[in-house]
Write a structure and sequence with these properties.
Length: 253
């Protein structure tokens, strides 16, 4: 585990959720991938032989979307199919992580590509309700705008730099005073490009763009003790995210 000790002061902690707040080994990610394949086969009626390459293409370009590939794609239906049948019973309350999060004086925000329903369900299963100021999720970044052309169907999500910049604007962050935690090397690289201090989670080795490597989110106090030392710099005035997303999505407590 690499440690970060440049003495910087931080006032916001930005957390990915899936495979960051809980380990990859639980198998939620694997189940999610299988549900995506089932959706492609059963809902979109994609030829089975084309599915592996299409999955790879979509992984390489997360902003590539079904309508641009010629498919009638409904985001709500997709999320319902992909997340609705996940083995949520594998997620257990994590009192250790809850206590760690509640002891941190900084603002804490979830930044996930998933939809609202999945994010809220997962946090509840882990017993982490009330630990975060808000959730920035799929709906936050992809709310239809009257100013957007109807032909512009591009999906905004990690790892695009634009999604990072959108989060800065939505949550009114100072990137130089924000620590970004994620399990994806690609997201970490984009986060660094946006100016965040970055922590790769689930790895004992640094990846390009990462300042810190954590094998587990539970190692946060060991690797980043200055987060607690900076308690006096905590900003009490929380930013209201309700203008960006539905109130019950954003504000957990």
């Amino acid at each position: 585990m690499e440690s970060y000790s440049n003495g910087a002061k931080f006032d916001c902690l930005l957390f990915d959720m899936d495979d960051t707040l809980y380990p990859l080994s639980l198998g939620i990610n694997l189940a999610c991938r299988q549900n995506i394949i089932d959706y492609m086969l059963n809902k979109l009626q994609i030829e089975e032989s084309l599915v592996p390459k299409m999955c790879l293409d979509l992984y390489r370009n997360m902003e590539l979307q079904w309508p641009l590939l010629g498919y009638d794609f409904d985001c709500d239906e997709f999320h319902s199919c992909v997340h609705g049948a996940l083995p949520y019973e594998k997620l257990k309350p994590d009192p250790v992580l809850r206590n760690l999060l509640l002891s941190l004086p900084q603002r804490k925000i979830i930044f996930t590509n998933s939809d609202e329903a999945h994010a809220v369900t997962a946090l509840k299963k882990m017993g982490l309700e009330g630990c975060f100021e808000g959730i920035i999720c799929f709906e936050t970044l992809n709310t239809p705008s009257p100013d957007s052309p109807t032909s512009d169907k591009r999906i905004l999500c990690k790892p695009s730099l634009e999604s990072m910049e959108a989060v800065v604007e939505i949550a009114k962050l100072d990137p130089k005073k924000t620590v970004f935690f994620d399990d994806s090397p690609r997201n970490i690289a984009s986060g660094k490009a946006a100016g965040f201090h970055t922590v790769i989670v689930g790895s004992s080795a640094l990846v390009p763009g990462a300042d810190v490597a954590l094998e587990s989110i539970h190692n946060i106090r060991e690797a980043l003790p200055e987060l607690w030392e900076a308690a006096g710099d905590h900003i009490d005035a929380a930013v209201d995210l309700q203008s960006a997303v539905v109130a019950e999505t954003t504000v957990l407590a």
